[in-house]
């Protein structure tokens, strides 16, 4: 009984607005994660030694392209934000198209695929950042966050946005799957009554 | 008759996914190698990396869940819940594989810009076992995606369309 009530609640017109709002939030979260990580770059000059009395300086750059996990992070977040933008466009401007079960099924499947994609990207970047922040004494990998603090901070911000995107995409996917059970139109021109399949 | 074969197919898929997740778990846990070079003894275990620990935990959760769902009775109402839980488990699997793969890639190729040297040269057997665990985890992921599509199909089509 509770499940059918949940399903009914998921298909009312109010939930259409909720779904749209969630998609806008997820779009902005993943887009900001992609942009912040994509522009993540820090250049610093260090003293690496002394020749006599004069210090020898070398310039090091920390870019997101150095780490394949971050490249995957940027690409995946861009893809998921593009998917959300597409779904928002379909939601707003696709009202005249017939609401077939194929359309709902493809939306649900695409949402599921994008949930897995964004969770994979966020997690890979999170664990690589953990190695960069704490180092790994077993593998003798030094931490880099003490030297490139701004790079690490921006990366942390992008990660938080991506994890917010993960949670939002999971909720969106759950709503899309529950809308498969009882489809109804979400366009603003028709009435708000949910249709029950015979 | 078609329904019975479908159900048996789904059971076989879930058993295979359980087996794959369990295999990934066991192979990762038993990966341990001791190497010594330059009078320094180095032991590589899966607990050295946080990503590998997460991989083990995620695969343990997925194995236990698969095992429990194997015994779910056919007419239970929990099958609708199984769809969402399947999605959660797929997310858990992809994230664990992705994290372990990212760290293992650094271990194999190193990261010249960060000054991280590859470790696979010193502990090749450990690296091979980690690779095997990752492959098993990937197989479990593919099976879980198939299971997710199947449970979506079985929950949406027969159960709810026939309810009046």
TrEMBL record, chain A:
| Pfam families noted in UniProt | CASP_dom (PF04535)
Q: Which domain of life is it from?
A: Eukaryota
Q: How does it sit in the membrane?
A: Multi-pass membrane protein
Please give the start and end residues of each transmembrane region: 20-39, 69-93, 105-128, 156-177
One Gene Ontology cellular component term attached to this UniProt record is:
plasma membrane
Where does the protein end up? Cell membrane
Q: Which InterPro entries match?
A: CASP/CASPL, CASP_dom, CASPL
Q: Which residues belong to any copy of the Casparian strip membrane protein domain?
A: 16-168
| Protein keywords | Cell membrane, Membrane, Transmembrane, Transmembrane helix
| Similarity-based family | Belongs to the Casparian strip membrane proteins (CASP) family.
Q: How does it assemble?
A: Homodimer and heterodimers.
The name this protein carries in UniProt is: CASP-like protein
TrEMBL record, chain B:
Q: Which UniProt keywords apply?
A: Cell membrane, Membrane, Transmembrane, Transmembrane helix
- Keyword Cell membrane attributed: yes
Q: How does it sit in the membrane?
A: Multi-pass membrane protein
What residue stretches are annotated with the Casparian strip membrane protein domain? 7-143
Would the keyword Lipid biosynthesis be found if you checked this record's keyword annotation?
no
Name the residues that span the membrane.
12-31, 51-72, 84-107, 133-152
A cellular component term from Gene Ontology for this protein is: plasma membrane
Kindly list the places in or outside the cell where this protein is found, as annotated in its UniProt entry. Answer: Cell membrane
Checking Pfam families in the record gives:
CASP_dom
Q: Which NCBIfam families match?
A: A_tha_TIGR01569 (TIGR01569)
Entry's family note: Belongs to the Casparian strip membrane proteins (CASP) family.
Q: How does it assemble?
A: Homodimer and heterodimers.
Q: What is this protein called?
A: CASP-like protein
Q: Which organism is it from?
A: Brassica napus (Rape)
